[in-house]
Give the backbone structure.
Amino acid sequence: MNLIIEELKQMQGKLEEGYFPQWVVTDPEIYKLEQEKVFSKTWLFLAHESELKESGSYITRMMVDDPILLMKNRKGEIKAFLNSCSHRGTRLCTEDYGNKKAHTCPYHGWTFNLDGELIGIVAGNKVYGEKMDKSEWGLRPVPRVESYQGMIFGNLDPNAMSLEDYLGDMKFYFDIMLGRSDGGMEVRGVPQRWIAKANWKMTAENFAADPYHVQTTHRSATEMKLTPSDPLYASYGHQVVLQNGHGINVITSATGASANKYQGMPEDMWTMFERNLNEKQVEIFSKVTNFVGGVFPNLSFLSSCSGSEGVRHNHLNWRVWRPIGPEKIEIWVWYMIDKALPEEYKEKSYKGFLATFGAAGTLEQDDTENWARIIEASSGTMSRDRTLSYNNMANYLMGFDNVEIDETFPGPGEAYPTCYTDHIARSMHKYWLELMTKESGGEG
Amino acid sequence: MQGQMQLSLQEEITQFYYREAYLLDHRNYREWLDLLAEDITYVMPLRVTVENKMGSNVNQEMTYFSDTKKDIAMKVERLYMKSAWVDDPAPRQRHFISNVMVEQTGAPDEYKVISYFLFKRSRSSEANTEEIFGEREDLLRKVDGDWKVASRTVYADQSVLTVMNLAMFL
Ligand code: FES
Ligand SMILES: [Fe+2]
């Protein structure tokens, strides 16, 4: 491990120049180190509060390999625990979701309430002595659970900075996507889930940092005349670099505005948006065509407009790229919609989402293909050569010395006046490298 | 007599499914499209893991797709484009259709048909193969002597799909 960290430290300078070695993408040792240094230290998305409606509602999630049980207690608070019985470690809840007052372990029958407390032991008085103190054997809580705009995150590091600090200026953009409507947003049904051959860093980068791929990967959409043929169409707008490896692309159009004000949402909602958002947020939101970005490490989002016949409907989807190995991910996609929208609009928006993204979406299908091809070509001796004799560097030179910050952009963050640039990608990988080479222990 | 008629109907429908699978597996998507009724609803809800007391382990609120014929036609046309990377180079695919159960409906020319499916796909020179399996609930309709799929609901058995995408038709 130390050797790997030394090697990574040597990369620092290279990365700042716009090079990222191909071997780190899928290297198994790197993957182990990522679990310890990245996924155990950063805020990981667990659920949206609308997924847990009433007291007793529960859902199960994964924080990489840790099964997590989220429950809504009687007071309406949502708590998250390791989904493992404190007796012998059995997975307590095997369902995706449901509702119950207490969870009983199928092995020996211990029972836990909605606050994770151990409330029932089979034959307790008869078989346990004084040493057994029930209050010490509750479910183990996720060390930190915090939420912003209904988005619940967990962190395994008790010393981590607060979620709000971690999100930093991303909060400004979360407000637009999640806080624009009275009543907020709701998840429709449950997330889609499927397995893809991909590395989580590359899928995260694809959403957070890479509108450049759109024209080629999604060329079929252009051929079908669903998207413009101008090869620069996904570049218009701003790529905004945020703290802690986060980033967002605010895509507009050649004119700097969108043909569908407020992403094509009904006009009678506009005054509500203007009331819920500040002036700068309104300015950005009124002109945006697509928001696409990511919260480091593995939460991504896309808010876009789809539809034919000239009528376009906004849809918002969130996805977690849960790593299940250096070369494999489980994709979770949540579809979310403003509660305040009329049912008819919601239905059209949902159809637009299904047609484009998610496992069957035509755009997403071609993405999965390219992610797999990265894996296929990144596992051999030549692509993993550490001596760099082949210059085994992936290219992150776009916008390196030819794009300057646009100070006139109204939103926070470092905004570059094009989305065809590698600024976010460089910043993500830089933050990744910082975490990977950070000494363990001490202040997180 | 009645029994014999039933058997030939069963045989006819099974043959229809085999032909459908053949067209899909050989990427004759346009011909396959002709097997679908104009008013088809083609839906794939999510399979979920929930307690038996919930009654159903299918979540109808979220689907993987929820298509009309127009939506399907668009997907079909896309797969003929050279830039639909998911199908070019083409993966090899097989639909195994079995356990066909035909049920009468109120309408004389319409039958409810349950069938099991196993879909296997091999892409590139990869040793691992992808698969998805489950059952389909169809409404088949006879229109001018030809069978048409009037509706199809696909229930995969996996709650986490072990296919990279759902570019195939099931
Ligand atoms: S392991 Fe859960 S009660 Fe024994
Ligand atoms: Fe894409």
Summary: Chain A has a mean pLDDT of 94. The radius of gyration of chain A is 23 Å. The pocket of FE2/S2 (inorganic) cluster (ligand 1) is lined by residues A 85, 87-88, 90, 105, 107-110 (CB under 6 Å). The first helix of chain A runs from residue 2 to 16.
